[in-house]
Amino acid sequence: MSTTAIAKLPKDFTWGFATASYQIEGSFDKDGREPSIWDVFSKIPGKIGDGSNGDVATDSYHLWKEDISLLEAYGVKSYRFSIAWTRIIPKGGRGDPVNEAGLKHYRKILEELISRGIIPFVTLYHWDLPQALHDRYGGWLNKAEIIQDFVNYAKVCFDAFGDIVENWITFNEPWIISTLGYNVGVFAPGHKGNTDSWIAGHNLLLAHGHTVKLYRDEFQSWQKGTIGITLDAHWLLPYDDTQASKDAAIRGLDFKLGRFADPIYRGYYPESLKRIVGDRLPAFTEEEIALVHGSSDFFGLNTYTTHLAMDGGNDENMGFVKTTHTKPDGSQLGSQSAAPWLQTYPPGFRSLLNYLWKTYEKPIYVTENGFPVKGENDIPVEDAVHDTDRVEYFAGYTNALLEAVTQDGVDVRGYFGWSLLDNFEWADGYRIRFGVTHVDFKTQKRTPKESAAFLTKFFKDHIET
Ligand code: PNW
Predict the structure, then answer these.
(1) Count of CB atoms within 10 A of residue 431's CB?
(2) What are phi and psi of 431, to 5 degrees?
(3) Are 132 and 144 within 8 A, CB to CB?
(4) Can you tell me the distance from the alpha carbon of 367 to that of 169, in angstroms, rounded to the nearest whole number?
(5) Residue 91 predicted with pLDDT over 70
(6) pLDDT > 70: what percent of the chain?
(7) Which UniProt keywords apply (predicted)?
(8) Is the shortest distance between the CB of 176 and ligand 1 below 6 Å?
């Protein structure tokens, strides 16, 4: 009689769920908090699909303890959340006052997590730039000011929480921040144009580099933490067999991923980026690139889908690569979610993990991965909890992860489902639900969906004990 042992993730593999401050906290004007660019942007008519904003969201500013109880019930090892800059330094700048109430708020969350055995992963910036800095000097477009102000904010956080936080993420998705915020303009602060995005992205890289240097010089030796950045990437497959499509897939990865990952992990911008963007792409001085190169202890990855890539289109931020989910024969690559840009395709996740490990040689944390079920917002909670399509998505993606680690030897250290709760999905408002927990936005009642139980069981069964 023979038994085959199931492949398992290593004992210290961590997993949990992720959230972000503006998407869950609400209490936009409580205890000294001042507006961020998302408060202002979401209140401009027409910017948010359902006319909503984050004033209340999932009310997690008050219900944080209940949220932690959910995490505990799900048996997670870790929780990824973000700090709102506007609660810590409401006006944002290095000359502006620090808000004790904000420090206290996150301190009590951190202490509660740790007392329940949950390891915090803290994101410093998940898109909520203090509006005051945007008004004062143009926010991410003002290199000299924004870098210093961000580093100052980060230092306040390292000082206040570094004794109990061992996992820091500087920025969430610089591509989205710069492209959707400063080129397409569908995210705050809503800038449009073909130059600002390159400047914002460059300044984000520099702010990241300076922050990591500060952490390493002054904190890392005695706080023993790690620090890195989270990039967003979708795997790209050539649309067809043509050389043009093959080249497009590579160029698309350069623009989406290499634009940030190459400077950080290899020390330069991709050639294709320099060629296409030309002198609108700011150049690093030698000193600057020395600071950025090597400035991440790990590779934080947010990934949701795979696209088919072909040459063309007018999107410079994608390197003039067009993407689609429709194959040449008219069939779909995967199953459709509630978001037009997201279809299920687990093999693409496995390929992406392999690509990142081979290319950048850093341990990977999947800091977000998830699926909004089509039609879920239109059905009652009794039905929404049977989120079969989300379960199917997570089953495919966790299995791809398992194969990447146990068969391909990719060094993945952790996985976070997006998201703990249905929440404010940016320009889509509340209509698109990503949660493993259903939230009734009228009563704030939380109800676990089947996908939460699926992930609990998957990681219970597949991590070595
Ligand atoms: C991420 N796209 O954003 C963010 O980090 C989360 O805050 C967000 O809720 C989550 O993914 C789900 O959208 C993205 O259009 C926003 O490809 C848009 C895209 C990708 C990621």
Answers:
(1) 15
(2) -75, -25
(3) no
(4) 10
(5) yes
(6) 99
(7) Carbohydrate metabolism, Cellulose degradation, Glycosidase, Hydrolase, Polysaccharide degradation
(8) yes
| Range 129-145 average pLDDT | 98
Number of H helices and number of E strands within the chain? 18, 13
What one-character-per-residue DSSP string does 159-210 give?
Answer: HHHTTT--EEEEEE-HHHHHHHHHTS-SSTT---SSSHHHHHHHHHHHHHHH
Point out the ligand 1 atom lying closest to the alpha carbon of residue 428.
13
Q: State which amino acid sits at residue 27.
A: S
pLDDT band at 3 (very low <50, low <70, confident <90, very high): low
CA distance 413 to 353: 12
Give the H or E element holding residue 260.
Answer: helix 259-265
Query: Computed from CA positions of residues 106, 107, 110, 111, in that sequence, does the dihedral angle turn out positive or negative?
Result: negative
Closest by CA position to 392, among listed 365, 373, 377, 378: 373
Residue found under tokens 């992930």 = 455
The mean pLDDT of the chain is 98
- Ligand 1 site-directed mutation target among 302, 342, 376, 421, most atoms within 8 Å of CB: 302
pLDDT of 223 over the 60 cut: yes
The answer, yes or no, to whether any atom of ligand 1 lies below 6 A from the CB of 230, is: no
Q: Residue range 14-18: average pLDDT?
A: 99
Residue to mutate, 169, 176, 315, ligand 1, most ligand atoms under 8 Å from C-beta: 176
As annotated, the active-site residues are 173, 368
Instruction: Give the burial string for 297-317 (b: 16+ CB within 10 Å, else e).
Output: bbbbbbbbbbbbbbbeeebbb
pLDDT digits (tens, 9 = 90+) for 254-296: 999 999 999 999 999 999 999 999 999 999 999 999 999 999 9
> How is the chain split into domains, by residue range?
14-462
* pTM across the whole model: 0.98
Query: Of 3.60.40.10, 3.40.50.300, 3.20.20.80, 3.40.309.10, which CATH number belongs to 14-462?
Result: 3.20.20.80
